[in-house]
Write a structure and sequence with these properties.
Blueprint lengths: L1 H57 L3 E10 L7 E7 L2 E7 L4 E4 L10 E9 L2 E8 L1
Parallel strand pairs: 3-6, 4-6
Antiparallel strand pairs: 1-2, 1-5, 2-3, 5-6
């Protein structure tokens, strides 16, 4: 019985030594880790608005008013037509997700006046809104 008490006492003493050794490490490492982590989050917060602002500027919608000059072939679910705006030629792509402000796809005919709101890539407009 006396031997069991001594072994339990030794185990309890070892555990106390281990906890005692962990305290200085925790006091040194934990604050440094938290400081570096906070710095990283601060840099992320500073860098994010600039990235979001440049991305939103690139995807800004613009509106064009012109006349349909040619109906292009339907490619899968996307339809297209060619329109002229002040002597410039644009190809307009639209699909089922395009919002029709006035009229419908049935109004898309050669010679019809249209208003297109969308994003420009080269001479191709990805229509977000159409009026015909």
């Amino acid at each position: 019985m006396d031997e069991i008490v001594r072994s339990v006492h030794r185990l309890a003493h070892r555990g106390a030594e281990r906890n005692h050794m962990k305290r200085p490490i925790t006091r040194l490492v934990l604050p440094a880790t938290l400081a570096l982590g906070s710095l990283g989050l601060g840099l992320l917060a500073v860098a994010t608005p600039a990235t979001a602002a440049s991305a939103s500027h690139a995807a800004m919608d613009k509106t064009w008013h012109g006349k349909i000059t040619k109906l292009d072939a339907k490619m899968g679910t996307t339809e297209a037509f060619t329109m002229t705006v002040d002597m410039k030629v644009y190809v307009v792509h639209y699909d089922a997700m395009t919002h029709w402000v006035m009229g419908t796809a049935k109004n898309i005919k050669v010679g019809a006046l249209v208003t297109v709101t969308g994003t420009l890539s080269g001479t191709t407009i990805a229509a977000a809104k159409l009026s015909a």
